[in-house]
Amino acid sequence: MHHYLGCWLECRNRNCGFPIRVPYSRKLTKSDTGAFSFACPVCLQVNAYERKHLRKVQFRIPDPYKSGKLVLFSAWLACAYKRCPGDLVVFTVAAADVSLAALLQLWKTWMVKIRCSHGHRFRVPHVNTWWVQEEKKLG
Ligand SMILES: [Zn+2]
Ligand SMILES: [Zn+2]
Predict the structure, then answer these.
(1) Structure pTM?
(2) What does the pLDDT look like over 34-75, one tens digit per residue?
(3) How far is the CA of 111 from the centre of ligand 1 (A)?
(4) How far is ligand 1, taken at its centre, from the CA of residue 22, in Å?
């Protein structure tokens, strides 16, 4: 019986709680909190997470990130106040066969529950100004 090491992240939105498979990362050491922001692909809420929210699991199904079925993305958001340097990198996951154009139609409706260090809200960019890249692991 094969086992495939991965991580499980449970959405922090109490009305959702969707469990999301994320790539396993050896970088998840005890040296820091491993803080990251993540957008739930189901409820589209962006919340702050830490390493402690990740549960290491021996999955029976091969890593869908390695087989290219799922893609981990990071997107960059700027503070809603133009003069404020506050910014935020948000991780999220999507099926590999969904176009980025379709994803952005979803992502523009993100509800960002995180404030910048000055207490401001983050601005979700216009569809043609997103800064997105593919990632191998969280953080
Ligand atoms: Zn959710
Ligand atoms: Zn700000």
Answers:
(1) 0.92
(2) 899 999 999 999 999 998 899 988 889 889 999 999 999 999
(3) 11
(4) 14
Domains of the chain: total: 1
Whether the Cβ atoms of residue 7 and residue 21 lie closer than 8 Å to each other: yes
- Considering every ligand atom, which ligand is closest to the CA of 16? 1
Q: Which ligand is nearest to the CA of 83?
A: 2
Q: Which of 106, 95, 98 is nearest to 130 (CA)?
A: 106
Alpha-carbon span 85 to 56, nearest angstrom: 35
Q: Which range of residues forms the domain containing residue 102?
A: 4-135
Please name which of 103, 130, 6 lies closest in space to residue 62, comparing C-alpha atoms: 6
**Residue 91 forms beta bridges with which residues?**
38, 74
DSSP 80-126: SSTT---EEEEEEEEETTS-HHHHHHHHTT-EE----TTSPPEEPPP
CA distance 38 to 102: 19
d(CA 138, CA 27): 9
pLDDT (tens digit per residue) in 70-114: 999 999 999 999 999 999 999 999 999 999 999 999 999 999 999
